[in-house]
């Protein structure tokens, strides 16, 4: 009916125009009530809209790849607690503004888990943003230079989850360490962080050029946090022999 198609356009609900006929045929065959038919039409519109919104949030998060929790290789990483990872995948920690810290050598799956948790959060309707530690510091330094650091931190607090990858790969000078500390402090007990690092907490003083700043930062991060320690060799190098690695 043209009337239904017009109303669908007016409501910006294009799936209604696509589905009302097919669902109408099914409703007549199955003897649905008017209420059941209407619920089915609206359900399809909502499901498609939610799927589209999730895809947009995933793209906006700027993940480095599409890595799912379901694809994580627990056989290669037996140190990872399956039950804890499954719990983190529910996103319950986000409602408590808790953090997640993934520690371990390079190649042990930290970024995979961080992205997988982030994708789950985006699918659940939350705004997520991903970057490396150096990327976050560069963003804050630019805001600071423009005199807009408080506004930038307030803007970032509107994201339910920020993912900070590769803490410790590149050391920070004092100014960069202070900016990173402000990012952590601004989210403390307000919104969640997922951080990955190749260094134990005891070595973060080396990264942030100041043991006192590092200690204060760690205190805020772990106060409400789940910490996963990953171990073992690099998954990316699993098929390389010792001879091949030495020759590179």
Automatic annotation (TrEMBL):
Key words of the record: ATP-binding, Nucleotide-binding
Coiled-coil residue windows: none
InterPro entries tied to this protein: AAA+_ATPase, DNAC/IstB-like, IstB, IstB_ATP-bd, P-loop_NTPase
A Pfam family per the record: IstB_IS21
A single BP term in Gene Ontology: DNA replication
Molecular function as annotated in GO: ATP binding
SUPFAM superfamilies found in the cross-reference section: P-loop containing nucleoside triphosphate hydrolases (SSF52540)
CDD domains: AAA (cd00009)
Domain (AAA+ ATPase): residue spans on this chain: 96-228
Family: Belongs to the IS21/IS1162 putative ATP-binding protein family.
UniProt-recorded name of the protein: DNA replication protein DnaC
């Amino acid at each position: 009916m043209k009337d239904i198609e017009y109303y669908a356009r007016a409501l910006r609900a294009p799936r209604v125009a696509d589905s009302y006929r097919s669902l109408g045929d099914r409703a007549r065959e199955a003897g649905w009530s008017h209420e059941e038919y209407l619920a089915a039409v609206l359900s399809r519109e909502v499901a498609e809209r939610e799927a589209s919104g999730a895809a947009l949030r995933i793209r906006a998060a700027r993940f480095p790849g599409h890595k799912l929790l379901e694809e994580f290789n627990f056989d290669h990483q037996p140190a990872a607690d399956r039950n804890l990872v499954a719990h983190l995948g529910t996103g319950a920690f986000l409602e408590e503004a808790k953090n997640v810290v993934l520690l371990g050598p390079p190649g042990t799956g930290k970024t995979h888990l961080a992205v997988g948790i982030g994708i789950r959060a985006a699918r659940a309707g939350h705004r997520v943003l991903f970057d490396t530690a150096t990327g976050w510091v560069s963003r804050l330094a630019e805001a600071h230079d423009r005199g807009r650091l408080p506004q930038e931190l307030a803007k970032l607090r509107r994201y339910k989850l920020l993912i900070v990858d590769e803490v410790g790969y590149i050391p920070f000078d004092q100014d960069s360490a202070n900016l990173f500390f402000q990012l952590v402090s601004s989210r403390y007990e307000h919104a969640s962080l997922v951080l990955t690092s190749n260094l134990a907490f005891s070595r973060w003083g080396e990264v942030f050029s100041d043991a006192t700043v590092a200690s204060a930062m760690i205190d805020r991060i772990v106060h409400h946090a789940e910490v996963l320690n990953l171990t073992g060799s690099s998954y990316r190098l699993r098929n390389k022999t010792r001879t091949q690695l030495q020759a590179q």
